[in-house]
Amino acid sequence: MTLQERPLGDPGSSPYRILREGDLRDYLARLPEVAARLGGAPNAWSITEVGDGNLNLVFIVKGSRGGIAVKQALPYVRLVGESWPLPLSRAHYEHLALTHQARLAPGLVPTVVHHDEALALTAMELLEPHIIMRKGLIAGTIYPRFVEDITTFIARTLFFTSDLAVSAAEKKEGIAAFAGNHALCKITEDLIFTDPYRQAEQNRWTSPWLDHIAASFREDFDAHVAISRLKLRFMASPESLIHGDLHTGSIMVTETETRVIDPEFAFYGPMGFDIGAVLANLIMAYFASAGHERVAGERQGVESWLLETVERVWSETARKFLDLWRSEARGDGYPKALFAGAAGETRLQVERRHYMERLFADTVGFGAAKIIRRILGLAHNIDFEWIEDGRLRALCEARSLRLARTMLVDTASFATIRDVTKRARELRDWQPDFSAT
Ligand code: ADP
Ligand code: MG
Description:
CATH topology of the largest domain: Aminoglycoside 3'-phosphotransferase, Chain: A, domain 2
Strand order of the largest sheet: 1-2-3-7-6
Shape: globular
Low-confidence stretches: 1-12
Radius of gyration: 22 Å
Number of helices: 15
Distance between the termini: 56 Å
Order of helices and strands: HHEEEEEHEEEHHHHHHEEEEHHHHHH
Number of strands: 12
Helix content: 40-55%
Number of domains: 2
CATH class of the largest domain: Alpha Beta
Bound molecules: adenosine-5'-diphosphate, magnesium ion
Largest sheet: 5 strands, antiparallel
Strand content: 5-15%
């Protein structure tokens, strides 16, 4: 399962331009495979721009037979505009990651139908009736397949791109293939690991209620040390090909299917960053839930499911990862020659446990960082944003921040995932002191 890098800029294709509806229709009509998939006459295809993300354009195109989703990168950040340029090459890395993930975790990402390097465009399987998981969680929906699917995705993509599974040469080729995606890494380095802890123009939070909490994070050197250690791990630990943005807005679901989308932040980084992202977003959905109830207690079912899911996402990821390590370890890490015989295997078992403990601590730390950035930084999430009452929203956010700060600076106090969910449950109805505001 090697990474096949494609040249940046396919000489045969047309130069980059932002595609509008008519232009896109003509372009797609010239692609026999796409036209056949859509069916019917091109002028009868419906084309709707649905991009609700922060960075790119996404069109849904439907014909008489089927549909596709077409994603095109813009030379700037969509959320901010032309004043914040961002390289088109991110579409190249997204395509490279998507096709590699499709091989490693079949059926858990949308199938790519067409890719155009010069246009920074990828056409893929239309996910329908899937919805963005974050929206389903806000509505109080439970997803019975989710744990099974997401833990397969995480365990397989992380394990099979690590030094436990591949040769040192293949691993380093992989790192090289994604090294150019540094502009996207820089966004993470700034927006997650730096800005929420300093006065940054783009930061925002639910004011005035969270003013003093936001200020306390800017003066909290314990937090600054902890986040800086995590930043360094993010920058200097190419453990695996990570998705890099694995929040519940990058997961599309039905009650029976799960698909991971949008890996444009992919690069070789620390595994705990992806696992922490999933856990953090489930934890935020849990704390936001109180802000979405019309009658006290009416969302207890989904809230219990969310915490149980936090526990199972970690435990099943760990179980599947360890199973792969036992059965598929063909990499250059932990040479078999050093762990020969029954005694060697016993010792390796102990070491695997230590490895998972270290990964758990990373996961808790990165999860904390993900929560804090969504409440004090630039990009917020609709779990909280859709709570209209500012004071109520601040209450949910303050509870999340309280858990996240402990996870960040006192990571070692969480020995198991149950320590995380127990603390979350204790904070469900915690009343912060907003009297100073
Ligand atoms: P961005 O990188 O700008 O965040 P995303 O890849 O997250 O873009 O896509 C933005 C939105 O487009 C998603 O939230 C989803 O609603 C929709 N979308 C993306 N890919 C698909 C797909 N394959 N099928 C259906 N909808 C999709
Ligand atoms: Mg997105």
